[in-house]
Design a protein that fits this description.
100 residues, alpha+beta, 5-stranded antiparallel sheet, single chain
């Protein structure tokens, strides 16, 4: 699973708008913290200008998201990673995104 969304010039490293940027979760991990919420999920997302990604393809942007574990667990999907993608797509910053 991945996400496609237009990326403005201010949202990436190359400084030009990218139509249909390709968002891919590269890591998602549960961490315990001493404050509430007790458990959070850290989600790292690499964003590319193309969906054809090879070993030498560089991302044009990188985002890190912190989500309460309970929110991830309540998201749609049967697997942990599916739930992470569902939660990510529901965020206001992802308005207009589509699953690919």
């Amino acid at each position: 699973m991945a996400i496609s969304k237009n990326l403005s010039d201010a949202e990436n490293r190359v400084g030009i708008p990218i139509s249909g940027a390709y968002y891919r979760i590269v890591s998602a991990e549960v961490q315990r913290q001493p404050i509430e919420p007790k458990f959070i999920v850290k989600i790292d997302v690499a964003i590319y200008a193309t969906s054809t990604i090879g070993n030498d393809t560089m991302e044009v942007a990188f985002h890190r998201h912190d989500a309460p574990y309970d929110d991830i667990n309540a998201a749609a999907g049967s697997e942990f990673l599916d739930k992470c993608y569902s939660w990510l797509m529901a965020q206001p910053s992802m308005a207009g995104a589509t699953a690919v």
